[in-house]
Structure formats: structure tokens, C-alpha cells
Amino acid sequence: MKFNMLTRTDWATLKGIKTLYGIPMYYIQDGTTYTVVEGSLYHQYWTVLKESSDITDFVNNYKSAATSVLSEDDAISKILYGTSTPNDIVLTLNAILSQLGGTSGTVTTVIKDSEFTVTTRSEVDVTNTSYTVPTNKVFRVTQFGASSDNPSGAVFRLKVYNGSTLVRTIKLILGSSGSNSFTWPNGIQIATAGQVVKITHEAQAAKGTGWCGFAGFEQ
Questions:
Q1: Residues 154 and 95 in one domain
Q2: Pairwise CA distance, residues 118 & 50, whole Å
Q3: Residues 183 and 87 sit within 8 Å (Cβ to Cβ)
Q4: 212 inside domain
Q5: For residue 102, what are the CA distances in angstroms to 22, 123, 138, 196?
Q6: What is the largest CA-CA distance in the chain?
Q7: For residue 211, which of 132, 156, 152 has the smallest C-alpha distance?
Q8: What angle do CA 201, 82, 143 make, to 5 degrees?
Q9: Segment-wise mean pLDDT, segments of 10 residues, the chain, 219 residues
Q10: Model-level pTM?
Q11: 123: containing domain
């Protein structure tokens, strides 16, 4: 089930929503023109600033607190990724278990992401995306996404290792610059205690920049 909706609007409406709800704001700069995107898991808004008064207002009052991104898709993926929460079904089952006299399991959100510069065509680990499942825990992934401005395309892999043994791989392919993602609303168990989850990147050309990340919960 998809909850998100994208709406194009004007700058006055966009900054009004920002002031009212304090939601994250992202921008893409093309020369002196800005595309601004903001929103939540349920609804995203975007506009292109072309009027000099709107551009001046954004630059003077909003740009310093906004985040520069590669594209509109990149902004939306960050909005959806950043609002991930522990799985609602798990929390509901824990509540039922407590009512029945049992002890609910704890749920801890895990978020790993990184922005990086592409310097090689070889498959390499992406810095700051490694996560080791704690003792007596399992890890369930809910989201895996990536974006890149590499015109030749790239492959991102979410890998699980048990020591030096590769347990499983989830592959995400970008045919050219843009973004892509996988979502599992209920979470899928991909790793157990002691196993390591990480992302690797393999580019067709050593150029450009990229972003990738995954989210989930341990219990």
C-alpha cells in the first residue's frame, strides 16, 4: 500500500507549509534557478523558483536550513527514508502479548546512510553503512534505497555476512542518473545476531556522486 502523494505548488504555499509543520526542505540548484521539495511520508510538495523575489526569499531565509540534493527523486527518497519508524504490526502484536500476560519484545530502529564520491568502477563498501546485529537480536529491513548522478549507471548491493561468508544479497540497479528503492512495509528478517549488514557500490564509470541507505528494526 502506498501512502505518499506528490503535489506541485507555488513558493508561497510551500513555505507556508514549512512554517506550519516544520517539515524537512530540500533543493536542487540549476544555475540561478531552484527546485524546492518538502514533505512527509504521506504527502510531498515541490515547486520551481523562477521569480527573482521568490529566489531571494528562499536564499535569504530558507536555503541555509535546507539540504542540497541531486534530484527531485533524491529528495523524495530522503523524505520517505527519513520518516521510517518501527513496524506498526510488531508494536501491535507486542501490545496484544502484554495483554495476554506475556513480555513484549523491544524494537529498536536502525538507520544507515551515506553520501559519497564515485572514485572507482570496482565494487567497494560504502563508508558508514555497516551494521552488526546485536546479541540475541534479529534484524528486519523495511527500506533500501539509492540515488546517483552517474550517467553510466551503477549497482548497489545490500549484503549480509556471517563472518566472511556471504549469506544473502539484495541488488538495486540504477540504469543511469536517478534513484530507486525497495520497501517492505512489514519488514523482512535478513540477519541474525552477530551477522553484518552493509551496502556496496559498483559503478560503470568512475565519476559523479551517490547516496544510499537502508532502514529497519532489530528485536
A1: yes
A2: 32
A3: no
A4: yes
A5: 39, 46, 19, 30
A6: 64
A7: 156
A8: 55
A9: 69 88 87 88 86 93 90 80 49 50 65 93 95 93 90 93 95 85 86 96 92 91
A10: 0.55
A11: 86-218
